[in-house]
Each structure stands twice: as C-alpha cells, then as structure tokens.
Design a protein that fits this description.
The chain has 61 residues and is an all-alpha fold. It is 67% helix and 0% strand. Helix 3 packs across helix 4.
Length: 61
C-alpha cells in the first residue's frame, strides 16, 4: 500500500481518521487491482484520476 498511496507521507493522525482512510485506500486498491489490462497499479490510479469514463467503469465493476 505504501508504494501506491505513499502512506508514509499521509498527515492523517487524529481520532478515527487513520482507520477511515485505511478502509478507503483498501477499497480503492481492490477496485484498481480488478481493472482489466496490463498497466501498473500506479498507472491505473493515474488514469482513473484523469479519465472520468475509466473511473466510472472501475466503480461500476
């Protein structure tokens, strides 16, 4: 997870925020991992940020 989402640089440290962000990151990682194609996880994450249609296909899958 650290290589994809750079967890070491995350500034979320109070109350329930770290647990909540970890849950969201795991959900996002699972969606990105299930995407079709041979691109790296980092590239798929960038494409999802740039392309709304690709992001919608990830969420709908």
């Amino acid at each position: 997870m650290d290589m994809i989402f750079r967890d070491d640089e995350c500034r979320v440290r109070t109350d329930n925020a770290p647990a909540n962000f970890t849950t969201l990151k795991h959900m996002a990682h699972n969606l990105i991992r299930k995407a079709q194609g041979k691109d790296s996880l980092r590239l798929r994450r960038k494409v999802a940020a740039w392309d709304d249609d690709f992001l919608a296909s990830l969420i709908a899958a």
